[in-house]
Amino acid sequence: xxxxxxxxxxxxxxxxxxxxxxxxxxxxxxxxxxxxxxxxxxxxxxxxxxxxxxxxxxxxxxxxxxxxxxxxxxxxxxxxxxxxxxxxxxxxxxxxxxxxxxxxxxxxxxxxxxxxxxxxxxxxxxxxxxxxxxxxxxxxxxxxxxxxxxxxxxxxxxxxxxxxxxxxxxxxxxxxxxxxxxxxxxxxxxxxxxxxxxxxxxxxxxxxxxxxxxxxxxxxxxxxxxxxxxxxxxxxxxxxxxxxxxxxxxxxxxxxxxxxxxxxxxxxxxxxxxxxxxxxxxxxxxxxxxxxxxxxxxxxxxxxxxxxxxxxxxxxxxxxxxxxxxxxxxxxxxxxxxxxxxxxxxxx
Length: 348
Fold this sequence. Notes:
Strand content: 5-15%
Helix content: 40-55%
Number of domains: 2
CATH superfamily of the largest domain: P-loop containing nucleotide triphosphate hydrolases
CATH class of the largest domain: Alpha Beta
Distance between the termini: 49 Å
Number of strands: 12
Order of helices and strands: EHEHEHHEHEHEHEHHEEEHEHHHHEH
């Protein structure tokens, strides 16, 4: 018989790499929000789920169950085959730990596939996330990466994370770059997904002496940072990056690839056009139409983003500011690494 486990038990097993989480809800439910690290092997696809829901409302629960059984019976061989390909123990879950996860776990158990089922499903996990975010006492010192737009802050953080430094990629969690152009080429995450990913990192780094993350405003795309994290950012050591304009333009072009998203770039620009001096705005618009993206980006930096950023450093006292002048992201990562190693002994 399959075994029911709590959220805490599930996460302990997952942390030990002893478990693969499988979300058996429909693909659209999975895309909306799931438990980080889980796979999606749906018992019903979106159309099938909608059909069963309609039968439940218009006819009866018994008729809905009968139709559900007909659908599941036809797809059981492929459903089981997908689980057999997972070389690890499995834990299945649905929305409330109800019929879909129970059916999945029962069938898998009958086939000799060891399976756990999450009590309460995604709803219980979401409750656990909210409660822990409200109660967490996150003690690591914050090192906050600041810099003009295009300074390669995300790239720098990635390089430091690969070297083993405790890095939190807030924009990666939000799947948004934090500006009016920030969702181009991306599918932004909602608040539930963001908070799950944020808590995952907070738990992973809770015993670290410090963490490093990018300076973000309260809102990143569709998501909002919790108040305690904003306070942590404001009280942290602020590292400011000074990098040549041409390198910043190159970073933006490499990251956004505007030639693949021309209409999205034009649409985003129109949202801020009236905030830029009219002749400059007209030149940027012309450059975007002509696909002269390097010129458009440089003008946006010089006349829109840089002036909005210049006051930031002055908000922090000198004892909490470090400014580094570098040629590129690689040099910045090396310099920050030296700063962190040099000051590590001073972090209690």
